[in-house]
Design goal:
With 323 residues, this protein is α/β, with parallel strands linked by helices. The chain has helices spanning 14-23, 68-75, 90-95, 98-114, 146-165, 187-196, 216-229, 246-257, 282-288, 296-309, 311-320; strands at 4-9, 32-38, 58-62, 80-83, 117-123, 168-174, 176-178, 201-204, 210-215, 235-238, 243-245, 264-267. It has a domain at 4-177 and 216-241 and 273-294: Rossmann fold. It has a seven-stranded parallel β-sheet with strand order 3-2-1-4-5-6-10, sandwiched between helices. Strands 7-9-11 form a three-stranded mixed β-sheet. A two-stranded parallel ribbon has the order 8-12. The radius of gyration is 19 Å and the shape is globular. The chain binds nicotinamide-adenine-dinucleotide (NAD).
């Protein structure tokens, strides 16, 4: 069996750490070695990798994807890069975009310069906002937030390396992920942990913004299908098949917490808040057999229970980030 050495960037974050834990877990492919490269920003948490820390096929490198020398040296020992590292929170990009451009655009380009094979993890936010229907991968990119614009830029740079240099680049655009180990600034973990503490939850505007929710297990399933069977130079949407307005999501979370609408505080809407995202997943379903498996109601209940049972994980993060 030939071993594939994969450099996973951002592997101490929410999705990257789940990807690493899954691939090195009992259901993983078994023929891989993983090096995580992570800067450990406020969103990177070494504890997320504790379950695999002593795995013989795991290595952790603390560093920045913008560090050309570090990246060149590391990539030389790996066949593939799976690229999660990013500044990922839209609200932070509205307060200041510089880090988003540096890490998401320049960092991606630094990796591409060194890479042999590159799986670029992007987002449905690059398409903009749409009132009805769903985006196929061929739709134009109309990003609205600085975060989405930085991801759209990195998608285009990545695809340009395929067209110009023949690099094996595959791009995935997923919808909103949910699950355990999610930093408590994002809507689901923020609302769950506020409710667990008996605090109110801040709902933007009227709560009419619609998102498609994708469980991290299904995202990892989609990523592995694209890494192992996708076509170079192609983009694949990955969705969860559960569209909900923030108001509907809030209702479900209040029910799980046994709380009422008096626990909701309506706050001014996010600047430039996209109304609705919806990805068309026909391509990854037809070509690679992708199907989201996690029932949303069950996945949300499990996520709620995980936060209830893992205060020691999220309390210090919330305290440090003053959330
Ligand atoms: P996250 O914020 O939880 O984790 C990001 C990780 O990247 C952290 O561990 C951080 O320390 C690391 N990092 C940041 N800057 C770095 C740098 N310069 N060098 C090295 N490491 C650095 O993010 P996430 O939610 O796990 O998202 C992972 C990827 O998936 C991102 O590219 C994001 O754009 C994309 N995505 C996320 C979602 C979602 O719902 N969370 C949806 C669509 C796409």
């Amino acid at each position: 069996m030939t071993t594939t050495r994969i450099l996973v960037t951002g592997g101490a974050g929410f999705i990257g750490s789940h990807y690493v834990r899954t691939l090195l877990g009992p259901a993983g492919p078994g023929d891989i070695e993983i090096t995580v490269l992570d800067k450990l920003t406020y969103a990177g948490n070494p504890a997320n990798l504790d379950p695999v820390r002593s795995h013989p096929a795991f290595r952790f490198v603390h560093g920045d994807i913008c560090d050309t020398r570090l990246v060149a040296g590391l990539v030389a020992g790996h066949e593939q890069i799976v690229h999660f590292a990013a500044e990922s929170h839209v609200d932070r990009s509205i307060l200041g975009a510089a880090e988003f451009i540096t890490t998401n655009v320049l960092g991606t380009q630094t990796l591409l310069d060194a890479a042999l094979r590159f799986l670029h993890v992007s987002t449905d936010e690059v398409y903009g906002s749409l009132a009805e229907g769903s985006w196929p991968e061929s739709d134009p990119l109309r990003p609205n937030s600085p975060y989405a614009a930085s991801k759209a830029s990195s998608d285009l740079v990545a695809l340009s390396y395929h067209r110009t240099h023949g690099l094996d680049v595959r791009v995935t655009r997923c919808s909103n992920n949910y699950g355990h180990h999610h930093f408590p600034e994002k809507v689901i973990p923020l609302f769950v942990t506020n409710l667990l503490d008996g605090h109110r939850v801040p709902l933007y505007g009227e709560g009419l913004n619609v998102r498609d929710w994708l469980h991290i297990d299904d995202h990892v399933q989609g990523l592995e299908l694209v890494r192992t069977g996708g076509r170079p130079g192609e983009v694949y949407n990955i969705g969860g098949g559960t569209e909900l307005s923030n108001k509907e999501l809030t209702t479900l979370l209040l029910d799980l917490a046994g709380a009422g609408w008096d626990s909701v505080e309506h706050v001014p809407d996010r600047l430039g808040h996209d109304l609705r995202y919806s990805v068309d997943c026909t391509k990854i379903s037809r070509e690679l057999g992708y199907r989201p498996r996690k029932d949303f109601t069950q996945g949300l209940a499990e996520t709620f229970a995980w936060y209830r049972d893992h205060r020691a994980w999220w309390e210090p993060l919330k305290h440090k980030a003053a959330l």
